[in-house]
Amino acid sequence: MSKIILHIEDIKREFVMGSETVRALKGVSFNVNEGEFVTIMGSSGSGKTTMLNILGCLDKPTSGKYLLDDVDIMHLNRNELAKLRNLKIGFVFQSYNLLPRTTALENVELPLFYNSTVTSEERKERALKALQSVKLADRADHTPNQLSGGQQQRVAIARALVNNPVMILADEATGNLDTRTSYEIMSLMQDLNAQGKTIVFVTHEPDIAAFSSRTVMLRDGKVQKDTSNENKRVAKEALESLPVSDDY
Amino acid sequence: MGIFNLIKLALRALQRNKLRAFLTMLGIIIGVAAVIAMMAIGQGSKESIQSSLSSMGSNMITVFPQSNQPMGGARMGGSSFQTLTLADVTAIKRGAADVRNVSPLASSSGQSIKGGNNWPTQIQGIDTGYLEIRQLQIKDGIMFSESDVASSAKVCILGQTVITNLFPNGENPIGQIIRFNKIPMQVIGTLVPKGASSFGQDQDDVILAPYSTIMKRITASIYIQQLYASATSAAASDNPTKEITTILEQTHRIREGEDDDFQIRTQAELMTTLNSTSSMLTVLLTSIAGISLLIGGIGIMNIMYVSVTERTREIGLRMSIGARGIDILMQFLIEAIMISITGGVIGVGLGLISSQLIKSLAHWPILVSESSIILSFLVCGLTGIFFGYYPAQKASRLDPIEALRYE
Ligand SMILES: Nc1ncnc2c1ncn2[C@@H]1O[C@H](COP(=O)(O)OP(=O)(O)OP(=O)(O)O)[C@@H](O)[C@H]1O
Ligand SMILES: [Mg+2]
């Protein structure tokens, strides 16, 4: 079996709201191996986003253990977490979060600005390569408002790739897109996974989860089911099978 | 993130909101322009007062007559008191060690005439040492001598203004006979022009003659209007003042506790008074200008808070991809500094232009010092840092998750 990229053990996260305490995660444990494509599913409010924020080092659990690429993040401070996010994690958001009035290329470059070991030529080169891998090299000079939603999300994926992270985290990355575009994004994700990238993908749509190799089902802050997907769908085939009349 | 990239980032952010950035800068621009112009006016007047005072002789001591009687009714002007005589001059000459030269001044206004030209001017009866005391110089001809004074010779030295008016065709005045209040006098010398004094008086509109001649033939009085002396050095003008006071109190028989019937003024004293007045003016004007800089700074703070709020999501995103608090802090701080420094540059330009305008339109003496420009930049930079810091710090302390979720 390959290397464990992500190890969480009895993760709890509580939000204190005045006199009330919201227990969003009530003890979650699982491992993710290098090269896995995991989807986290669950109904609204089950704790998916909270989980992903912790995995992405944007948030710290109230208690529990989290090892990312063998680094224990529980003892890291804000700056160390920022560095970890910069070097090991690529984030993809539901709402793309591209900087407005900034070209696709510059958006992709952004994470490298916060990595002082990357020179400006290297930055451009790597950003262009990342754009090529999402097939948007010809749109490098376009600003987000000149791109479709699917294209914007691909730029965001290129941005998540540019720093060569050990894993890509996506929160409802297809949530704002139509079926066809969602499948295109999933096809891209499968390509990246085939190249060896570890992906953790939050969704509440079962047909999106079907493209992954494993599904962790959350319910009320706990793992309800953790199943590997024997017959995972291939997004390219699914795309071809979509009725053409979809574009009306 | 490197400083170069941060500056680029800040420039771009400002470019996107050009009008807003400019309006924010306006406070700084006006403040800096005001500081530059006000300091230029203040220092210009100080400088011109200083140079004209030192051209009058910086170790000059003047003694005026003054009343020591308690007065009822109307106060009389200083020159109408008669307490100083030639005996005082002699006593000071003899008794004051720290005094180099002493001269009486017996002056009179009147009409000077040469042929068909006449000119109202002032004749000053003085001793030979007067030239040194007042820092005057003979241009052509010679100064009258001790023996001219002893014999009350009818000789005189002319100032440039008098020459111009009495000899309009440019004849050589030396050797000519002019008349002052009907007294014929031979011109034996001319003075190097001095121009206007710091009080706007034409210092060249004067005729100099031996005091004996004037007192005998024109003022016909044993009293003199003023007494001039020069200290051996400018620094030691305190000592001679004391010496003169003691001597005059003796010759005038002023008892202990009684008021003096004379008044001594030193040039150094006058200079300090004028200097402190103009420094006060500078401080006042500059602090008014400083207040507008403060208001400009508050404007920056305000707009930076708006900018941070507007870009909360951007901040969240930057943090999620690895920006540290310090990166965010620097991003906004540099933006604030850019606003204030750019405002400072424009303000300095505007200040220089308006200083020149004041100079050429109002004819005020203007002096733009490098230090005022450097000071303005420094203050601008500090304003940017000071007022930009709190909004920038607020940005850097945002929670990335909440910032990303911000609507
Ligand atoms: N910052 C917060 N403060 C208080 N409660 C929070 C906070 N974030 C999340 N929660 C609570 O934690 C629980 C889990 O929320 P979470 O956003 O993880 O759900 P989710 O599974 O992502 O839902 P959805 O599918 O709707 O996005 C919810 O009950 C939510 O109200
Ligand atoms: Mg969610």
Describe the structure.
The complex is a heterodimer of chains A (248) and B (407). With 248 residues, chain A is α/β, with parallel strands linked by helices. Chain A has helices spanning 48-55, 78-88, 104-113, 120-133, 149-161, 179-194, 206-209, 235-241; strands spanning 4-17, 20-33, 37-42, 63-68, 71-72, 89-92, 167-171, 198-202, 214-219, 222-228. Chain A has eight helices and ten strands. In chain A, the strands form two sheets. Chain A has a six-stranded mixed sheet, with helices on both faces. Chain A has a four-stranded antiparallel sheet with strand order 2-1-4-5, covered by helices on one side. The model of chain A has no long low-confidence stretch (mean pLDDT 93). With 407 residues, chain B is α+β, with helices and mostly antiparallel strands. Chain B folds into two domains: 3-52 and 273-405, no CATH class; 104-223, no CATH class. Chain B has 13 helices and ten strands. The site of adenosine-5'-triphosphate (ATP) has 13 residues of chain A, from strand 1, strand 2 and helix 1.
**Structural class by helix and strand composition of chain A:** alpha/beta
Bound molecules: adenosine-5'-triphosphate, magnesium ion
Per DSSP, the total helix count of chain A is: 8
Chain-averaged pLDDT of chain A: 93
Beta-strand percentage range of chain B: 15-25%
**CATH architecture group name of chain A:** 3-Layer(aba) Sandwich
**Biggest β-sheet of chain A: count, sense, barrel?**
6 strands, mixed
Q: Which homologous superfamily in CATH is the superfamily of chain A?
A: P-loop containing nucleotide triphosphate hydrolases
CATH fold-level name of chain A: Rossmann fold
Please write the CATH class name of chain A: Alpha Beta
Strand order of the largest sheet of chain A: 6-7-8-3-9-10
Number of domains of chain B: 2
Q: Sketch the topology of chain B as an H/E string, one letter per element.
A: HHEHEEHEHEHEEEHEHEHHHHH
